[in-house]
Automatic annotation (TrEMBL):
Protein name: 4-hydroxy-tetrahydrodipicolinate reductase
Entry's family note: Belongs to the DapB family.
Domain Dihydrodipicolinate reductase C-terminal per the UniProt entry, residue ranges: 151-291
Pathway where this protein functions: Amino-acid biosynthesis; L-lysine biosynthesis via DAP pathway; (S)-tetrahydrodipicolinate from L-aspartate: step 4/4
EC code(s) of this entry: 1.17.1.8
Positions of the Dihydrodipicolinate reductase N-terminal domain: 23-147
Length: 297
């Protein structure tokens, strides 16, 4: 596997300082909502979108137009032959994964087995196992539950606060509410990540306590989600209250649509392509790494 990666890295290094169009990106699954948004943003940014993508088992056999590129969608049962072809025709390809929580770990393991660098935007699954597997394999990857630049900056600020002032909110109670389109199957990965910072700040709170709002009528009435965005929104609120109830904090990020994540994912692809070209020692990154390096447009 290390040999495959070295081979891929060597062929990528030949394209150092190459134009964006020489970076090929395969988006699994660009027939899904996020995958499609990313594929379109990738084409708009001048990346070379691979016209092949993997979808769920037995769900393939269609074609999807992404920014003018007709992408053939093929079921996961055929992924060996698809990857044989992709790695042969696009040796420096970066894979983007926006699939489903149930597929996260097995997809990551598959990309690792093929020695292909990847950006994992999909949330859920066994995150500890995911990170461990990627670290052990030494495959180049960006993994993050949140790709939106400004939300990533908020995460980075929370990280700084937690590192510098651990326990600062000890005794406070926390209420976390997240509202997403009704098709979302898991609890927000972003909300779970933010809760980890609050835990380091001394707040006793379990991710199972995050309130998920998925009912469209409640989203309009209570969460004030505009009807146009019922099919794609992420409204998060974190409320802290002091033990005696006299001090309250509230953090909120409300995103409508998906362009913020699609743009961030393209940034992650460009960042990862650069790391592969440079043969960077560090292989695994998150979006705070991408932001810190000034790689988010
Ligand atoms: N990191 C970030 O910033 C963001 C992450 N997400 C995450 O992206 C994921 C996808 O979200 P949506 O696009 O809204 O879902 P979606 O349901 O629209 O799309 C998922 C697609 O994956 C396909 N799929 C299922 N199993 C597969 C497999 N084994 N291999 C390949 N494809 C498979 C499905 O057929 C479907 O087309 C979720 O986990 C969501 O939380 C969403 C937005 C932003
Ligand atoms: O499924 C979504 O839509 C989103 N998923 C990510 C998450 O689970 O945190 C990011 C954002 O909330 C949109």
């Amino acid at each position: 596997m290390a040999a495959i990666q070295a081979e891929n890295a060597a062929s990528a290094s030949a394209t150092e300082n190459a134009p964006t169009s020489s970076i090929s990106v395969m988006v699994n699954d660009c027939s899904g909502k996020m995958g499609h948004a990313v594929a379109e943003a990738a084409v708009a940014a001048g990346l070379n979108l691979v016209p092949l993508a993997i979808t769920g088992p037995k769900m393939g056999n269609s074609r999807v137009a992404c920014g003018g590129v007709a992408v053939q969608i093929i079921g996961a049962e055929e992924r060996d032959s698809v990857f044989d072809r992709v790695l042969n025709e696009y040796p420096n390809v970066i894979v983007v994964d926006y699939t489903l929580p149930a597929a996260v770990n097995s997809n990551a393991e598959y990309y690792i087995s093929r020695g292909v660098p990847f950006v994992m935007g999909t949330t859920g699954g066994d995150r500890t196992k995911l990170i461990d597997t990627v670290k052990k394999a030494g495959t180049y990857a960006v993994i993050a539950p949140q790709m939106g630049k400004q939300v990533v900056a908020f995460q980075a600020a929370m990280d700084i606060m937690a590192q510098n002032f651990p326990g600062a909110f000890a005794g406070y109670t926390l209420k976390v509410t997240e509202s997403h389109q009704s098709s979302k199957v898991d609890t927000s990965g972003t909300a779970k990540a933010i809760v980890e910072y609050f835990q380091k700040l001394g707040v006793k709170f379990n991710v199972d306590e995050i309130e998920r709002v998925r009912d469209p009528s409640e989203q309009v009435r209570r969460m004030h989600v505009p009807e146009d965005y019922l099919g794609g929104h992420a409204f998060h609120t974190y409320k802290l209250l002091s033990p005696d109830g006299t001090v309250a904090f509230e953090f909120q990020h409300n995103v409508m649509g998906r362009s913020i994540y699609a743009q961030g994912t393209v940034d992650a692809v460009l960042f990862l392509a650069k790391k592969v070209r440079e043969g960077a020692d560090q292989k695994l990154y998150n979006m705070i790494d991408v932001l810190k390096e000034g790689s988010m447009r």
